Write the structure tokens for this entry.
Amino acid sequence: MNLYKFARNKLITFLAMLFELLMLIACILLADALVEEVFHIQTMLATHMPLNLAIAIVLALQYLIAVLEVFASYREDRRGFTLPIVFLPGGIILRTAFMTVLELCLISFKLVTYFLSVLLEFALQIFRLDKLIGSAHLVDAVDRKLEPFDIFVNHIYNFLYFHKIHANASIFSSFFNGSLSFWCINH
């Protein structure tokens, strides 16, 4: 079996889902251990995992996901330079947090615009002005103005992730492909 066939194997998708679920649970246990040992605050868990063990589990899962991401990236022909931040301790968490903040800034602005355009269209229909003025122009104008920012965020995504996306796609593409599992399912 060559690398391309191995990367497209359903086992890679299953392992990505499994490792990312375990990583989420491990991060919750790490946060719980951190709060208990550093701040001495009782959380919802009666017994806590030792902080060193929680860190070791998170790091082990991180490196498993990073290696899996490198293998899965051979599904696509698009390749390019990737900043290997995932190989730093806590790199996947740092990369995910950075991209989530960057994406949510743009997505929240777009979603507010979409919501306001629906309200505007509703108000225009009430006053029978919907034939004269359309709210779709507002959405189109905002999308045109924000398109360079979409492309910029997608370029940042391609710079930080081994599995690449189309740079001229919408911001929602980078948001929903940030998880290796979602990317594997879509590709």
